[in-house]
Specification:
Strand content: 25-35%
Number of domains: 1
CATH class: Alpha Beta
Order of helices and strands: EEHEEEEEEHHEEHEEHEHE
Helix content: 10-25%
CATH superfamily: CNF1/YfiH-like putative cysteine hydrolases
CATH topology: CNF1/YfiH-like putative cysteine hydrolases
Distance between the termini: 29 Å
Low-confidence stretches: 82-89
Length: 250
Amino acid sequence: MKCIYPDWPAPVNIKALITTRKGGFSKPPFASFNLADHVNDDVEQVLKNRQRLNQSLPSSPVWLSQTHTNKVVELTTQGKVSEAHSSQPYNGESFDGSFTTQPNVVCTVMTADCLPILLTDTKGSFVAAVHAGWRGLADGIIENCLQNLNVENGDALAWLGPAIGPECFEVGDDMKNQFAGDEQDAFKVHGDKWLCDIYALATKKLNTYGIRKIYGGDHCTFKEDELFYSYRRDGICGRMASCIWIAPKY
């Protein structure tokens, strides 16, 4: 299993990893470390991949049912959500982000071009994982997540994981028009289309909340085909996972 580890000044009790497509059991076109069970990969291979991932984590990830919403959920115990956000334990309801203040609870999102955002603060008091596609960004997934967190101004850190890069994300007017103000600066003319810098869009959203400690944002899932799945490049493909958790302080 080949992973990426965020290079950011998070507290020592904050742990995170991002999987790549390398080191698993899935066969083409999902070769080889696909973690998604909804893309028509062989379920047994997906489970073997997940079991391998679990060996590097303190508990099994909480796998969200992601549908490009702006909804986030608090995880209070392994595999369960806060009663404040759901009337029953997690059961597949759609969320595109999760957060927790509890140790050894693994917040996780899956991506294959969309932007995974990991969040914590300088005290290591919380962690969050956000699946930020353009729909989620337009609908306020970052804002919804931060509103649930007790973030003091300037105290939060963000890491932007592997996503489609600004030279490859071609979009139309309909998508560009979902954003306004200086967010429009994230788009460049490309013939009769636009090239969107999803990293820049997320950065502007985070800056609005006073978050300036932003790291990562230096990959392109579309170009780096040996490391990453890309839905836009391949259509049929697997998914990477971005995981973050709080290690206990002893």
